[in-house]
Automatic annotation (TrEMBL), chain A:
<dbReference type="Pfam" id="PF00109">
    <property type="entry name" value="ketoacyl-synt"/>
</dbReference>
<dbReference type="InterPro" id="IPR016039">
    <property type="entry name" value="Thiolase-like"/>
</dbReference>
<dbReference type="InterPro" id="IPR014030">
    <property type="entry name" value="Ketoacyl_synth_N"/>
</dbReference>
<dbReference type="GO" id="GO:0016746">
    <property type="term" value="F:acyltransferase activity"/>
</dbReference>
<feature type="domain" description="Beta-ketoacyl synthase-like N-terminal">
    <location>
        <begin position="42"/>
        <end position="170"/>
    </location>
</feature>
<protein>
    <submittedName>
        <fullName>Beta-ketoacyl synthase</fullName>
    </submittedName>
</protein>
Amino acid sequence: MQAFLTGMGWLTSTGPGRGMQEFASPGESLRAPSREQVLESPDERFGRMDAFSKIGLAAAAKSLEDAGLAGKVDKHPAGIAAATRFGCISTDVDFLGTVFDTQGRWPSPHLFTYTLPNCFLGETALRFGLTGPSYVLHRSSPFSLGGVKAALYDLNDGEAEMMLAGSCDLQPPGGIDPWLDSCRHDAAGAVFVVLEAELRSQSRPYALVRLESDSIRLGSKQVHTMDDLVLQCQVLENSLSTTKT
Amino acid sequence: MNRVFVQDIRIATALGNLEQTFAGLLRGSTGIGPINRGFSGNAATIALLEQPDNTSCIHTLLELVLQDFPGLSRDTVPFAATTKAGVDSLEKVMRGIPADIQNAFPQWLLSRVRRRMSLDRAGLAVSAACASSTIALARAAREVAFGRAESVLVVCADVVSQFVYQGFSSLQALDKTACRPFDSNRSGLSLGEGAAAIHLVSEDRVRENTVSVIAEISGWGVACDAVHITAPARDGCGLIAALNQALSRGGLSAGDVGAVHAHGTGTVYNDAMEITAFKSVFGDRARPVYSVKGALGHTLGAAGGVEAALSIKSLHAGVVPPTVGLEDPEDAAAGYVSSRSSSLDRRVIVTTNSGFGGINAALVLKLPEC
């Protein structure tokens, strides 16, 4: 089972990036991006999104831009598979705060809208015309390759021609639970890649990604996390450039 | 592709287990009533879940569908589907009541199912709003169809919590009394809680173990509207695509379908979108279209699993239940929906769900001998 990886995008502690730009491995300190960092055109909904959605959309948009699909609004059968550990728990806590603070009289409808972890998939889909399957997979570790594995199955099974796959995680909120507190130092960020079953005429892949015995491989090398996948693709691309020169 | 069979099903709803729920639906009963859970309102709740201790209601809900589930082979792949899992644990923690916050994460639901059923394989915890369990079932069916698994268990569950109730209330999406799917006076949804456990097996496993099966999942489709986050596409584009995929994979034409088990939430825009999509795919030949949410409420991430299980009961009974709450069908739905049960002239049912994020999913279910 395999697919061409044609785009990479991320949002980590140093901000958004794509392709061969310097990739800073996910760190603790993560800030939601501005609209200008993510989307070229004014977007009235962007400012209203929760941080989880902004971060996920940023990485997804950067990977599509890297694959030459920025601004593409014609609908096409591409799907999205995202892995997450804590999902939108921060938004859940903020929403419940509005319930408890107002004795249930004025809970925030705006916050409630973003208390589903798949909302940013919808935000991405409508901006880039992605009409394939979209779903979130909940994992017990950050930067899981679960989305990439699922996307490879989707491509193999003919569910989509192209898949956006990756992971998205915010630091969990502090001060409400000891277990969540203990996870606050884990790395946070979002990383997405574009996977295609067959290459478009204009696209040039970074690598052929294979799923073998439940492991993701680039060539003979096994990768373990989303950040590892991006870094290994950059190493491959750099070695090819060096060979050519 | 391998054929995908359903071997066992269990559900828990406000009307009881599978037999009780189906019988209640045929009688036109409703499980929607006052909530007795520390906040006021109406919903289809399960009395057994009302427990004032520090565990999440989802523990009891899971037991209702797993306690008498037949033992499974250890190679069975578990799938869990939910929107908010045990989010009532998060409510308790934020109120200062000791509770295990990990219950609020869908991966907890998956690990609980794995442990409870002694399964070795890792499985997947899937979340896709109100289409979560439909997508999990489609995904699980693919594992069998493409030979990656011989046996799969899909467990889906969602509870009525203050979180969810007040969230939908803040969106002004709730009917003040009980929802009326496809009714001209419908004014919103009613929440419900429920769970389903559905065991899928391959034809080889059926042959090896000489077990009987109760249905076949012959097609599935998943598509996104790519139009709006919370509102459905007016033209039903995503649902139409999902339905066409499901029929195509099942090798069926629209004329082969005996009934459509609709999402039918009772909200103005969802129901109108669905009727538009059904007419586009199935044409003008009137066939039963029905929703169980006027009786069971909207069980969110569990809706697809609960509704698939009830569709299988309908396939065996040769009858689909009435749409409880329906009094005066909206013009576009007249001739399709009914407040009475309807006979099935073809033993194939398509069941559909749609959710936030513009996601739509459809399954084709039929009797195994068809």
